[in-house]
Each structure stands twice: as C-alpha cells, then as structure tokens.
Amino acid sequence: MISKILSFIILVPLAILLVVFCVANREAISVSLDPIGTLPQLAFQAPLFVLLIGSLIAGLLLGGLGTWMTQSHYRAKSARRRREVENLRHEVELSNERLRRLREERDREDVAKQAALANAMMPAPTSRALAGPGVAA
Fold this sequence. Notes:
Layout: H1 2-24, E1 28-32, E2 43-47, H2 48-70, H3 72-121
Antiparallel strand pairs: 1-2
C-alpha cells in the first residue's frame, strides 16, 4: 500500500513534467543523418519532444541490453548451480530411500533373530506315552 502511494507521489509529478515538456517542444525541427550534408535523403523533420523521448527510450533499451549481455556469465553460473543443487537433492532422496530399505531389512533380520532366540529358549516337548491308570511309571 505504501509503495503504491510512493509510486503515485513520484510518477504523477513526472507525468505532469513530461506533458509540459511535450507541449513546450512541439515544433518540428530538421534532423540530418548525413554529417557532411551532401545527401538530402538522410534528413527528416520531427517534433523535438519526439526525438528527445525516442532517444531516451533507445538509450534505456541499449543500456538494458548491454547490462543483460555483460551479466550472462552470472546467469550461466546460476543455472549451473541450480542444476547442481537439483542433482544433490536427487542424490539425497536416493540415499534416504536406500537408508530406509537398509533399516527395514535390518529390522526384519532383528525380528527373525529374536524369533530364533525365542524358539531356542523354549524347552523341547517330551514325547511320553500316556500310560493308563494301572501302569506304574
């Protein structure tokens, strides 16, 4: 909300100044692209504010393009590091899955060992024939 108010406070006076500038400089002027002046085909007429605002826009675009081109190695480094981070995350996921499987296998082995120990500790059943009441043991 505050940024919108600040933008409004800054942009409205700039817009008013731009309109005043455009109205004050609306006369057409001759522009020649021939430095020697021998080719009249390279000359044209345009209002001064159009030329100035056009050159400002062209300068902003060229400056932005130049900045973008000089920062290409930073973008490439960032992309490499992003891929590296993704690869490392994938490796961590694989390692965690492998660790989970190993723990499950160890737990199964522990349960099997405990069952084997429990079976070994139980006394073996004796097979005595049941004798009738009259038979002395």
